[in-house]
Design brief:
This protein is an all-alpha fold. The chain has seven helices and two strands. It has a two-stranded antiparallel ribbon. Helix 1 crosses helix 2, helix 4 packs antiparallel against helix 7 and helix 5 runs antiparallel to helix 6.
């Protein structure tokens, strides 16, 4: 493989079609727990060209806290569908694989054993699908607090996230 083979989608596609197991092993090598955590951190709040982490570090936990609050809420008499949840998860997973494959086609040396260049922000559009699936699979529980408290908590977490982002931008770029 020659260094000039970087970013040749047609050559890379030919490689994938002729060596699907090598491509699958590159995907598996790429999808380690370290990479997934890094993508989460990038999705939640690494700004700029993935060079400006949000401060304080605790803001990375706010989306998870929001998710837990929503998870605890009851959905009332709404019928739950495992089939629908699995469909949403399959769509989210397939979209993520297509994003990673696109980066492999466009950004990797032909036959590379790992996918590089993928950033967490590429997955932001599919978070809704994944969230819908997980909430659909949530056990039916009674909320521990009235709905307005949950909504107020989520609103407060969102406000904290926005304030942290604004403070990070002001500190890094000295703009008002």
């Amino acid at each position: 493989v020659c260094s000039s083979d970087l970013g040749h989608p047609s050559l890379q596609m030919s490689f994938i079609l002729h060596h699907p197991t090598l491509f699958m092993s590159a995907l598996v090598r790429t999808l380690g727990i370290h990479t997934i955590i890094l993508w989460y951190l990038e999705t939640v709040g690494v700004l700029g060209w993935v060079t400006l982490p949000m401060q304080p570090v605790a803001v990375y936990l706010l989306p998870l806290a929001n998710f837990m609050i929503v998870w605890k809420q009851t959905r009332g008499n709404v019928e739950r569908s495992t089939r629908s949840a699995l469909w949403h998860l399959a769509l989210a997973f397939a979209t993520a694989i297509l994003i990673i494959t696109a980066m492999y086609l466009m950004n990797a040396h032909v036959g590379a054993n790992e996918v590089t260049g993928v950033q967490g922000r590429y997955f932001i559009p599919i978070l809704v699908l994944a969230g819908m699936a997980v909430i659909e699979l949530a056990p039916d529980r009674r909320p521990s607090a009235p709905g307005w408290r949950n909504l107020a908590s989520i609103s407060a977490f969102i406000a904290l996230q926005i304030a942290a982002m604004d403070a990070t931008i002001l500190r890094a770029f000295h703009v008002f």
